[in-house]
């Protein structure tokens, strides 16, 4: 009976510590919101201006650039632009801060409305001095979210599939997902 009581107390204590940790992480995430929001706004501005070189060379972490060739990145962004158009409005969703020996990371999601539909953008950002760089990016949309049918050629789809397979082969935290 004493052992069971001690185990229950230890489990409750462990649960309290985990809960406290989650609360601290949640409270600390607000510390990062102004700079994270600034970063994401700059990303959308550059994407709307089709300044993919700026996004790739300035906003992407070196590890991301090592895994994703520049040409693949530009092709992906071009296909994305063709599919959903320019960003019109975005709303921040969930945010999570993580602290590791390699640095501080923030994972955040944005629901985004574009000219031709809506999607969810997911960013995994690493703190880099006074700003952030993305180490992971995912955009998820489905054809039912699009106002217009995509005007992509069979070559576009072939290129997109090749890029996705290349990214998967290189085990990078980047994906473009869409339904046909």
Question: Main traits of this protein?
Answer:
about 180 residues, 5 helices, alpha+beta, elongated, Nuclear Transport Factor 2, Chain: A, disordered C terminus, single chain
Please, could you describe this protein's structure?
With 180 residues, the chain is α+β, with helices and mostly antiparallel strands. It has one domain: Roll (Nuclear Transport Factor 2, Chain: A), CATH 3.10.450.100. Helices cover 51% and strands 29% of the residues. The protein has helices at 2-48, 52-59, 62-67, 70-84, 154-169, and strands at residues 87-100, 103-114, 117-128, 131-140, 174-177. It has a 5-stranded mixed sheet with strand order 1-2-3-4-5. Strand 3 (117-128) and strand 4 (131-140) form a beta hairpin. The termini are far apart.
Return the CATH architecture: Roll
Characterize the main sheet.
5 strands, mixed
Q: How large is the radius of gyration?
A: 20 Å
Instruction: List the helices and strands in order.
Output: HHHHEEEEHE
* Residue fraction in strands: 25-35%
Strand order of the largest sheet: 1-2-3-4-5
Q: Give the distance, in angstroms, between the N- and C-terminal Cα atoms.
A: 60 Å
Shape: elongated
Helix content: 40-55%
Q: Which secondary-structure class do the elements indicate? A: alpha+beta
Number of separate domains: 1
In round numbers, the mean pLDDT is 74
* CATH C-level: Alpha Beta
Which stretches of 5+ consecutive residues score pLDDT under 50?
Answer: 23-27, 170-180
CATH superfamily: NTF2-like, domain 1
At the fold tier of CATH, the topology name is Nuclear Transport Factor 2, Chain: A
* Number of beta-strand segments: 5
- Our count of helices gives 5
């Amino acid at each position: 009976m004493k052992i069971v009581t001690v185990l229950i107390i230890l489990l409750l204590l462990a649960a309290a510590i985990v809960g406290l940790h989650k609360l601290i992480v949640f409270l600390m995430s607000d510390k990062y919101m102004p700079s994270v929001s600034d970063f994401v706004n700059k990303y959308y501005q550059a994407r709307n201006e089709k300044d993919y070189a700026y996004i790739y060379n300035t906003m992407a972490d070196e590890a991301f650039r090592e895994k994703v060739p520049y040409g693949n990145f530009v092709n992906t962004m071009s296909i994305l632009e063709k599919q959903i158009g320019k960003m019109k409005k975005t709303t921040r969703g969930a945010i999570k801060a993580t602290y590791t020996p390699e640095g501080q990371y923030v994972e955040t999601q944005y629901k985004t409305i574009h000219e031709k539909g809506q999607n969810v953008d997911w960013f995994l950002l690493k703190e880099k001095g006074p700003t952030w760089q993305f180490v992971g990016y995912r955009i998820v949309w489905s054809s039912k979210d699009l106002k217009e049918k995509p005007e992509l050629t069979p070559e576009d789809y072939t290129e997109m599939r090749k890029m996705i397979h290349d990214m998967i082969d290189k085990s990078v935290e980047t994906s473009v997902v869409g339904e046909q």
